[in-house]
Design a protein that fits this description.
CATH architecture of the largest domain: 3-Layer(aba) Sandwich
Radius of gyration: 22 Å
Number of domains: 2
Shape: elongated
Helix content: 40-55%
Number of helices: 14
Distance between the termini: 37 Å
Strand content: 5-15%
Largest sheet: 3 strands, parallel
CATH topology of the largest domain: Rossmann fold
Strand order of the largest sheet: 1-2-3
Number of strands: 5
CATH superfamily of the largest domain: HUPs
Length: 329
């Protein structure tokens, strides 16, 4: 483990997590917590940038995401887990950085216009929405993070952070580390209909789905659309169910199913059953841990309290230095 290197990452609370979240983010975090000093936070302030008009589900969403994190294997003894809103230093640094960040820098972040077009049913003509990449900068900079795990689509946000912190260092002297992207490969996790797995598409398998729900969803999953009858040779390369085999089935089964499908020796129904059993075997220990955690709400609160206290201790030290550099008392 390299505790001298700090990693910071967060996730917006949108409800229970699905397999796409696990393989896209959580699986990587599980490895990072054994390698670096990690801070993982539930980004409840970020959720308000688009959901400020309807925040009713926010508390439950925060609870659900915490349960899924812990059930998947994030360990508060090996990483710091906390709610963003319980560490007000994030907001304080965001305010200070906003004093020196040109508006044009925020407007050119690619996701700004993309999300405004995508979420046309909401009024996003707010500073909170425009400035959320700057809040992301504060999230990282308040811990002087060296590394930020991101996907390729988030690199532009991190580049803005680097520019803002570079500008701060130029104006006030070397204060912040410029965080580096830690590009995280993620395997293909298609939704049940072949599109990207997404809550909004209704095509997701959740980490908390019970056995009956998983069996029903997998039974309805789209396979090779060109394969009409069992006697038709299939193409596993374009079959969603085979992607699940790659993720959850042992290599020898993956190899066998690949050959049998192409030779029309196995039908889609049998194929789905095999993939489903291995998926359920993966989910069962996660769900057992989740049920135990759900029965102990006091433990959940203790984890959040301890995480916020640890995060604030470090954040306050860095913020004090920022105040000094900016001539504030």
């Amino acid at each position: 483990m390299n505790p001298s290197k700090i990693v910071v990452s967060g996730m917006r609370p949108t409800g229970k997590l699905h397999l796409g979240h696990y393989f896209g983010v959580l699986k990587n975090w599980l490895e990072l917590q054994n390698q670096y000093r990690c801070f993982f936070f539930i980004a409840d302030w970020h959720a308000l940038t688009t959901e400020y008009q309807d925040p009713k589900i926010l508390r439950q969403a925060c609870r659900d995401i915490l349960l899924d994190w812990l059930a998947a294997g994030l360990d508060p003894k090996r990483c710091t887990i906390f709610l963003q809103s319980r560490v007000p230093e994030h907001a304080e640094l965001h305010l200070l950085l906003s004093m020196l960040t040109p508006i044009s820098w925020l407007e050119r972040v690619p996701s700004y216009k993309e999300l405004k077009n995508e979420l046309k049913d909401r009024d996003l003509s707010t500073y909170g929405f425009l400035g959320y990449p700057l809040l992301q900068t504060a999230d990282v900079a308040i811990y002087n993070a060296h590394l930020v795990p991101v996907g390729q689509d988030q690199v532009a946000h991190l580049e803005l952070s680097r520019e803002v912190l570079r500008r701060f260092n130029h104006l006030y002297g070397e204060t912040f580390v410029e965080p580096q992207p830690l590009l995280t490969p993620s395997p293909k996790v298609p939704g049940l209909d072949g599109r990207k797995m997404s809550k909004s598409y209704g095509n997701a398998i959740y980490l908390s789905d019970d056995e009956a729900a998983v069996r029903k969803k997998m039974g309805d999953a789209v396979t090779d659309p060109a394969r009409i009858r069992k006697s038709d040779p299939g193409n596993p390369d374009i079959c969603n169910v085979f992607d699940y085999h790659r993720l959850f089935s042992p290599p020898e089964l993956v190899s066998r199913v690949n050959l049998q499908c192409r030779a029309a020796e196995i039908g889609c129904v049998e194929d789905k059953k095999l993939a489903t059993e291995n998926l359920l075997a993966f989910l069962r220990p996660i769900q057992e841990r989740r049920r135990a955690l759900e029965a102990d709400p006091k433990r959940l609160e203790e984890i959040l309290e301890a995480g916020a206290a640890e995060a604030r201790k470090i954040a306050q030290g860095h913020l004090k230095r920022v105040y000094e550099r900016m001539g504030l008392c």
